[in-house]
Amino acid sequence: MSRRVPAAETLLVVAVLLAGAACGSRLPESDFERRGTAPAPAGGAPVRVGIITSATSPVGGAAFTGPRDGAKAYFDRLNARGGIEGREVEVHTCDDGGSGVGNNDCVHRLVEEQKVVALVATSSLDYAGAARVSRARVPDIGGQPIGAAYETYPHLYGIYGSLAPRDGKPGWDGELYGGTEVYRYFKREQGARTAAVVSYNQAASAAYARLVTRGLKAEGYKVVTEQVDFALPNFRAAAADLKEQGADLVFDAMDTHGNARLCEAMDDVGAKVTAKVTNVQNWTSSVGDDYKDAPRCRNALWATGSSRNYDDTGHPAVREFRAALRGKALSQWHLEGWAAAMWFTDAAKSCLSGGGGDVTRACVDDFMNRNKPYSARGLLIPVTYEHRADPPTTRRTCLSVARWRDGEGWVTQGDMNEQCFDVPQLAYQP
User: Fold this and answer.
1) How many C-beta neighbours within 10 Å does residue 239 have?
2) Which of 29, 107, 205, 276 has its CA 20 to 30 A from that of 86?
């Protein structure tokens, strides 16, 4: 069984970018802190890790903090239980402000000054310091592939895996590849045949919409494209047209605010669809508030991804995660940050096994390069890293799917490790 390689995770942040496109630029506000909830255990010197996050940025403070908060929750729990073989994990966070300058500053502070063993759960709007991290041979574990860095450089291990050579160029000669499993799923499992793709008349939004349209057409869908003006969007007209065209599915290349307004318009015109499909970034517990004025559309929301639904409380690893974050708003990015911290911890434990080793950058990197799938106790569809000289033309990929239900939250649809499809891999440029 192969690991899913999502087609659009490197463009995942498009919707968030759109939300702040008119906000202008701002100087990075780096926030560097030592974090630890318990005194250093007696087992040895603390193990230092770093987390770089665009916690303050032109697109808003909450857009990228989920992975960081999930990872910190894991390390807090780990330290409360004695750390790694008696050694505290000392977490240093750095806010890069969403800028390349700020990101390079964070890399300098964490990698070169604090000399962290690894970076964990990176979520940066502009990962400008990625090459420096790679040159220093610092493993970056479980980061979100907002850009192409995790498909470009060695020693960087994104949360979704990679088949690319990672020799300093993105993907294969500047092209990345991703599958059509999302579209195959809704065609096979939900009987969908017509899909609408709604975007803004804005470059990044339009590019993402074209990518989605290509994938849908490759799976044999009739595709209805709707474009609205970024400054003065007429969502009602788009909703009326997709209703007239008989769309079964609605995909979008818009921010959360735009999605909510589109859903309101769909409810207003009586557009009923099998699914209004969103991605892992919008897989959150705030759906009830975000879509409060669109009850019909809200209950047609589906999310797809590559990690186990955080509302899947029947799974022991999910219950452990939720217990640690009890009382907090949850998101799938929280869970993936938690999984990234677990991944580093397992690597560090392997370094100390036998009693004669130490947690070093090289040892952690060796663990990441074992060429063995990693599932974070079942929280991830098994992640693999390979260095294929040629891009795949087809691949068997698996998919995690959930749908929103008022009063229940996100309801898991099928077993993510068995919901797998042999699909074509389409090239696109990051």
Assistant:
1) 27
2) 107
- 418, 396 in Cβ contact below 8 A? no
DSSP secondary structure string for all residues of 283-345: -BTTHHHHTTT-HHHHTTEEEEESB--TT-TTSHHHHHHHHHTTTS--BHHHHHHHHHHHHHH
Q: What is the pTM of this model?
A: 0.91
Tell me the two tokens of residue 400: 């995690």
What tokens appear for 40 in the block? 């250093």
Burial of 136 (C-beta count, 10 Å sphere; 0-12/13-18/19+): middle
Burial class (CB in 10 A: 0-12, 13-18, 19+), 418: exposed
The predicted model gives 234-263 an average pLDDT of: 95
Cβ partners under 8 Å of residue 100, min gap 6: 126, 128, 129
- How far is it, in rounded angstroms, from Cα 122 to Cα 127? 9
The 3-state DSSP class for residue 37 equals: coil
Q: What is the DSSP string of 199-231?
A: EESSHHHHHHHHHHHHHHHHTT-EEEEEEE-SS
Mean pLDDT of 175-191: 96
Q: Is 119 exposed, middle or buried (0-12, 13-18, 19+ CB in 10 A)?
A: buried
How many angstroms separate the CA atoms of 195 and 127, rounded? 33
